[in-house]
């Protein structure tokens, strides 16, 4: 029995915390492919709980937590590296998101990643591309509860990706207040969607595509209505979409909608979703669209599989960004190597695997000088801004914040009161990374390929000891001065940096 368990396929799970529904997909990794073994979905209507000040009300928070509690039952026994949870538009917008995340910690023991809109678009494309036969250049459209993602790509590579603030829940609240349906309301919603897409429409049309593919609930619901009408191929065309619009306008209220194939729980937001898709069709001159079961959660799964095969898109993103901003890669690699050497020697973080933080340190070291492309004075602050606000495929918002924080505190005074609030990590997790990067930057201040003195580091909470070769100071007076300055920076925030010579092995 033990042998059987040892050889069983690895199981992974992905949860999509959407604005309208929460989804969970569980899969086995079998060879080089994924085998979906279960799907779970619950309509949560999270976006409807956002008030005018962008705070989530307690009822919406509780609905979300109840759903996560059910998902947690299915995930009992899953290791953290086998589960990814991604939150999208509503939690990106919610000003009191920290309340939801704090309460979720007690319910589901896996970090919730809040992902940027462009990252959501990339992952949706990945999910669609992996679940569709190769169809050449593809346009993928995903209408969610709070946002709509539009991506053009080829094979598994997205080429254009945008996320627009228009979703079936938010548009329902704004354009179909109290469920009222009218030609005026519908046209206003459709026009608003066209205005959202106006700035990118020409770019998309010039790029072109062979196949338009829709994913997620709104487009699935439209397809099911068309199939029930007799269009067995389920293809959405402009003419068929117009027919659905005409049918909707024959009803006065969303509660009155009687369309075969439309589920009861989809009725409240169906008119808003149709208006958005109609606006997309008109703006991009789409002839027809097919449906794909793949979406964000499948994208998360397939990316997890890629990471298990040591092909992490975040590394490619960091390397591309270093090239984009003309980073001195030789210096970046020196700092990266030194940082990794130091970090390998320090005490592990209680309750948090070093393997989870070490890649962030390495990427931070590689990109610590991107701000030099703006100017030298204050370049650490410029670097932080670029890392926090750039589009970085593969990184969630918290990971970008960690990278920005590391490079912000790589040099000069340590204004720790300026550190941002985090949800997945804690400050105590970042402090060793900051200390490590600062030492790596200081030790490589000469920017030469001359080998550094042998380095040994021990750590005891805020007190670190850096041990260098005996007599190293005689030949490294500038480095010694830099390290004394560094000691002063540490002392001002209650940290301690001791520097000692390494005893001669002959002694």
From TrEMBL:
First-level EC class: hydrolase
EC number: 3.6.1.11
Membrane association type: Peripheral membrane protein
The Ppx/GppA phosphatase N-terminal domain, residue ranges: 25-307
Alphabetical GO biological process terms: polyphosphate catabolic process
UniProt catalytic activity: [phosphate](n) + H2O = [phosphate](n-1) + phosphate + H(+)
Cofactor: Mg(2+)
Keywords: Cell membrane, Hydrolase, Membrane
Keyword Hydrolase: yes
GO MF term set: exopolyphosphatase activity
Main location: membrane
Compartment(s): Cell membrane
Cellular-component GO terms for this entry: plasma membrane
Domain spans labelled Ppx/GppA phosphatase C-terminal: 313-487
Keyword Membrane (UniProt): yes
Record InterPro entries: ATPase_NBD (IPR043129), Exopolyphosphatase (IPR022371), GppA/Ppx_hydrolase (IPR050273), Ppx_GppA_C (IPR048950), Ppx_GppA_N (IPR003695), PyroPPase_GppA_Ppx (IPR030673)
Record note on quaternary structure: Homodimer.
Homology family: Belongs to the GppA/Ppx family.
Name used for this protein in its record: Exopolyphosphatase
Recorded name of the encoding gene: ppx
């Amino acid at each position: 029995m033990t042998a059987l368990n040892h050889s069983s396929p690895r199981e992974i799970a992905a949860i999509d915390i959407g604005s309208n529904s929460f989804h969970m997909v569980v899969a086995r990794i079998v060879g080089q492919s994924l085998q979906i073994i279960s799907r779970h979905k619950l309509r949560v209507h999270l976006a409807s709980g956002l008030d005018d000040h962008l705070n989530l009300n307690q009822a919406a928070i509780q609905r979300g937590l109840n759903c996560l509690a059910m998902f947690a039952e299915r995930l009992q026994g899953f290791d953290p590296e086998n589960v990814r949870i991604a939150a999208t538009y509503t939690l990106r917008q919610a000003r009191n998101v920290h309340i939801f995340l704090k309460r979720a910690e007690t319910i589901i023991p896996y970090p919730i990643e809040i992902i940027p809109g462009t990252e959501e678009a990339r992952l949706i494309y990945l999910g669609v591309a992996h679940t569709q036969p190769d169809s050449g250049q593809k346009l993928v459209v995903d209408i969610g509860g709070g946002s709509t993602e539009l991506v053009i790509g080829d094979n598994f590579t997205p080429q254009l990706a945008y996320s627009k603030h228009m979703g079936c829940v938010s548009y329902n609240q704004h354009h179909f207040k109290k469920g009222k349906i009218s030609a005026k309301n519908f046209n206003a919603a459709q026009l608003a969607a066209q205005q959202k897409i106006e700035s990118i429409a020409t770019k998309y049309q010039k790029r072109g595509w062979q196949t338009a593919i829709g994913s997620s609930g709104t487009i699935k619901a439209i397809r099911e209505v068309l199939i029930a009408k007799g269009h067995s191929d389920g293809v959405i065309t402009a003419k068929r979409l117009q027919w659905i619009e005409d049918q909707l306008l024959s009803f006065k209220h969303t509660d009155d909608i009687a369309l075969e194939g439309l589920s009861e729980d989809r009725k409240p937001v169906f008119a808003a979703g149709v208006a958005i898709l109609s606006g997309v069709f008109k703006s991009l001159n789409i002839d027809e669209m097919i449906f794909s079961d793949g979406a964000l959660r499948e994208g998360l799964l397939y990316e997890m599989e890629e990471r298990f095969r040591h092909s992490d898109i975040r590394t490619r993103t960091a390397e591309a960004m270093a090239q984009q901003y003309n980073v001195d890669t030789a210096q970046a690699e020196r700092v990266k190597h030194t940082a990794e050497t130091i970090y390998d020697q320090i005490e592990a973080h209680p309750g948090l695997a070093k393997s989870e933080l070490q890649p962030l340190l390495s990427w931070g070291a590689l990109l610590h000088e991107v701000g030099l492309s703006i100017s030298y004075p204050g370049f650490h602050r410029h670097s932080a801004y670029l890392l926090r606000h750039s589009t970085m495929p593969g990184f969630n918002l918290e990971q970008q914040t960690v990278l920005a924080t590391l490079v912000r505190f790589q040099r000069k005074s340590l204004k720790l009161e300026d550190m941002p609030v985090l949800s997945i990590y804690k400050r105590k997790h970042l402090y060793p990374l900051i200390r490590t990067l600062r030492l790596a930057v200081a030790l490589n201040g000469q920017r030469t390929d001359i080998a550094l003195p042998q380095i040994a580091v021990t750590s005891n909470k805020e007190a670190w000891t850096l041990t260098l070769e005996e007599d190293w100071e005689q030949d490294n007076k500038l480095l010694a001065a830099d390290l004394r300055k560094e000691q002063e920076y540490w002392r001002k925030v209650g940290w301690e940096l001791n520097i000692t010579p390494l005893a001669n092995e002959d002694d």
